[in-house]
């Protein structure tokens, strides 16, 4: 039987294997370098985007200004006729806002503010005002009434709250 003949050993086979290994190592090195470059770039860019978003969030957060109080003097005195008896209510009022410029603009309209409050106070039920809930409802109604008036006259609600500094029923 004939034996297979071996190819002459002239060194061509080992040279092919060595070159193939070198090419694979170089290609893997290039892939790792490109991958590291892309990953590093993404990491740095993502960090900058997060810092920019954080800066936007911090700058967009509203800064709460200190409260400014404008006391309306003299106090409001309103009379009620209840079951043939004359009843009186005296209320001291202060307006609370946070923007001095807008509060000054509203001062020009104080006669309208006082009128609005007198009309609101005189239309109340005396028995309802005897309860704490009734007083709080009146305060909330006064706040919304003044905010509507300020919206018409100044262009913004301006007044955050109407506060009662004195409340006497007789």
From TrEMBL:
It comes from Pseudomonas duriflava. The keyword Isomerase does not apply. It is found in: Cell inner membrane; Cell membrane. InterPro entries: FliL. One of its GO terms (cellular component) is bacterial-type flagellum basal body. The keyword Transmembrane helix applies. One of its GO terms (biological process) is bacterial-type flagellum-dependent swarming motility. Pfam families: FliL. The chain crosses the membrane at residues 20-45. Belongs to the FliL family. This is Flagellar protein FliL. Signal peptide: none annotated. It is a single-pass membrane protein. Its main location: membrane. Controls the rotational direction of flagella during chemotaxis. Keywords: Cell inner membrane, Cell membrane, Cell projection, Chemotaxis, Cilium, Flagellar rotation, Flagellum, Membrane, Transmembrane, Transmembrane helix.
């Amino acid at each position: 039987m004939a034996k297979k003949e071996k190819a002459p050993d002239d060194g061509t086979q080992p040279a092919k294997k060595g070159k193939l290994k070198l090419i694979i190592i170089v290609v893997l090195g290039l892939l790792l370098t490109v991958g590291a470059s892309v990953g590093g770039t993404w990491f740095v860019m993502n960090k900058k985007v997060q810092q920019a978003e954080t800066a936007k969030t911090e700058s967009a957060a509203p800064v709460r200004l200190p409260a400014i109080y404008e006391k309306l003097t003299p106090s409001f005195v309103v009379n009620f006729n209840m079951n043939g008896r004359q009843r009186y209510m005296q209320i001291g009022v202060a307006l609370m806002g946070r923007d001095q410029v807008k509060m000054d603009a509203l001062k020009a309209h104080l006669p309208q503010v006082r009128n609005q409050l007198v009309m609101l106070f005189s239309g109340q039920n005396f028995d309802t005002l005897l309860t704490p809930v009734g007083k709080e409802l009146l305060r909330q109604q006064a706040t919304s009434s003044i905010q509507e008036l300020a919206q018409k006259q100044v262009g913004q609600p301006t007044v955050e709250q109407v506060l009662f500094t004195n409340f006497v029923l007789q």
